Amino acid sequence: MCMTRSFLAAAVLLAVCVLALGGCGCGVIMLAQSPPMSIMTFNIRYGTALDGENSWPKRRDFVFDSIREADPDLIGLQEALAFQVHEATAVLPQYAAIYAGRDDGKEKGETCAILYRTDRYTLGEHGTFWLSDTPDMVGSNTWNAGCTRVCTWAYLTDRQTSLPLLFYNTHLDHLSAEARLKGVDLILTHIAGQTQVVPLILTGDFNTGEGSEPILLAKEQLQDVYAEWLKNTHQPPGPMGTFNGFKNKTDGERIDYIFTAWSTPLDAEIIRTTRDGRNASDHFAVTARLHLIYVPEPIMSPASLRNPVPDPAVPLPTENTR
């Protein structure tokens, strides 16, 4: 069963608790926020594709330079084959990787790798499940999906604050609307089953636009960081397309997302840098900077993931300004 998808009740509860405690002089609920953190989601296109002038060996350095320039703390890669993940961590040794090949649960097939900065985070419990009726069965594929699809997840703990977060990364099917919708539902169900309730990040190539059922389902529970940042800053949306097809096109829909629960967005960007008129991948990378919000656990429940609270006034002590 999917988690309860109502955060308004939790928002009212929190407001009542804060007012009641403050009004009686018994104290107030103190919120805390993490140091700023940066996230990237990037479909780097699988490295064995016969893409001619856009083949992996000819754009590999551009991909890694794009990551280096953005300097994210956490990265969700899609379509990365195992050898591409190995190359990434060799060229960018500040990152460690978590991944499982979708075909064998090890090295075979595309991955939804998570890269994290080892100077900022330590790795906790982690795993991969398959987007199917049998998520624990390696290589399983149902729901009329064109490809086997996976979701990789991990608990990561900030070295400076000792506070944890939960990171999910996925790639939904490109053919089956049923698979995309059920895939999101399964991911939300998996999140609801976690034993720790902590701030959450979900990145991925969702292969569908903002008005589609899977995205609307995700938004019932999670915050779309890019959309939230546009709303908060009153930015004109501009071109939203994140699939460029190696043609540098910016029209079309935004299909690559960073979702969060319990966060305050600081900025967001679709990275459209070109080199000699070429793109690093057939998708643009999307980045975001944000604070994670930490509140008392009785308030931070699975029924209140979406961040129904005001910006916290108590930042955690840290020297990290990344």
What does this structure look like?
By secondary structure, this protein is of the alpha+beta class. The protein contains 6 helices and 13 strands. Residues 1-28 and 306-322 have low confidence and may be disordered.
Q: How would you spell out the order of helices and strands? A: HEEHEHEEEEEHEHEHEEE
How many strand elements?
Answer: 13
Tally of helical segments: 6
Q: Output the structural class.
A: alpha+beta
Q: Give the overall average pLDDT.
A: 87
Through-space gap between termini: 38 Å
Low-confidence stretches: 1-28, 306-322
Coarse morphology? globular
* Major β-sheet profile: 7 strands, mixed
Strand coverage percent: 25-35%
Helicity range? 10-25%
Radius of gyration: 19 Å
Helix/strand layout:
Elements: H1 8-23, E1 32-33, E2 37-43, H2 56-70, E3 74-78, H3 82-91, E4 95-98, E5 114-117, E6 121-130, E7 150-158, E8 164-171, H4 177-192, E9 200-205, H5 213-221, E10 223-224, H6 225-233, E11 256-261, E12 263-271, E13 285-294
Parallel strand pairs: 2-3, 8-9
Antiparallel strand pairs: 1-13, 2-13, 3-5, 4-5, 6-7, 7-8, 9-11, 10-11, 12-13
Helix pairs in contact: 4-5
